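Summary of Year 1 activities. Much of the first year was spent building the evaluation harness for sequence design. The harness presents a backbone, in tokenized form, and records the residue chosen at every position. We chose the following record to illustrate the format because it has been used consistently in internal testing since the harness was completed.
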């Protein structure tokens, strides 16, 4: 995995665990689109909408107040030209 991809995933994990608006904002460009699941019919569009929707979604699904705790491994393909790199992170 490239250093840039590894760095982005580390920032994603930080945002996921902190739910800090600034941590989330740092991940996305102004015109980003974020799908919360495959074939999402209602993706979050734009950095501020991503932050605005991320916070309530995460407060319902994780953290001490939800009574739930995440223990998952995420695997993702990163495509660059014809090369695919697989990365993995433990959350």
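For this record, the design step produced the sequence shown next.
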């Amino acid at each position: 995995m490239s250093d840039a991809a590894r760095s982005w995933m580390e920032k994603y994990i930080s945002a996921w665990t902190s739910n800090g608006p600034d941590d989330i904002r740092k991940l996305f460009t102004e015109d980003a689109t974020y799908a919360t699941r495959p074939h999402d019919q209602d993706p979050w569009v734009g950095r501020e909408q991503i932050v605005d929707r991320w916070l309530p979604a995460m407060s319902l699904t994780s953290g001490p107040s939800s009574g739930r705790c995440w223990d998952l491994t995420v695997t993702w393909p990163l495509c660059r030209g014809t090369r695919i790199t697989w990365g993995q992170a433990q959350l």
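The longest strand covers residues 73-80. Quantitative recovery figures across the full test set are reported in Table 2.
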